[in-house]
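Dear U.,

For the methods section draft, I wanted the exact inputs and outputs in one place so we can describe them consistently. I've listed the two proteins in the order they'll appear in the manuscript figures. Please don't edit the token lines directly; just add comments below if something needs changing.

First protein:
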Amino acid sequence: MTPSKSVRAIVRDRKSTKRVVRLGSKSCERNGSQPPRTLAEMANVGPATLADFKVLRIERVDQLAKLKPQDAFRLWNKLGRLTGHRHDPCVIDLFLSVISQANGDKPRPWWHFTSQRKAMQQA
């Protein structure tokens, strides 16, 4: 599953010289952006992910900040149990992304976490 070119595009913000990466319909400054205050402000989080968070009873960024990377697998398994169907493994990548952001790391596209997920699955 490869993201479309429009999702991967790195563009220049016309009002400044900062590089901006487009993540879906959102953009995040790459250098020193403020940490997200709400789940909806997080990179890679759209309506479907917000709905998943609701199912998982995750309502605030600080709840994600308490999690470790390996908790992404636990969230994915729990989401599958609660919804009654198996979700694509890229959802784990997305959970790794938002856990990383909530813990103060710069936002990165979810597909940057695929190799981390695969390495964690092999361990």
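Second protein (the one for the lower panel):
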Amino acid sequence: MDEVQDSDRGGYAGGGGFGLMVLWMLACSAVILFGLSRMHPEIGARVAYAFRDPALDLTKPFPNCKAAHAAGFYDIPRASPAYVQWQDPGNNGIACAPAPDGPGPDASVRTALIWKRLSGR
């Protein structure tokens, strides 16, 4: 069946086949990952490390948020050694959050880090 764009419903005519396919792929991926992590615990540890917040690996705070943003770090959590109270104006446990109207973090940098950590290089 050819899928036709249905602008009234904001999706494709003929049901939610695409959404179900994505859900099915995610469920299969989760089963494979859980199975692999039970058979090979080092894989589970590597995946957990790959998706871990890179700010947790920092050893010292940045002099200011502008320097943190230039280095590609936004939203530094309280658990990170780089967190300092005065860089958290909202006192919500997140330092150096991006400005609402300013540029945010570059997703390609985080994606490259995840792939680097997954490949073990």
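Candidate sentences for the figure legend, describing the second protein: The chain has a mean pLDDT of 80. The first strand starts at residue 5 and ends at 6.

Thanks,
Y.
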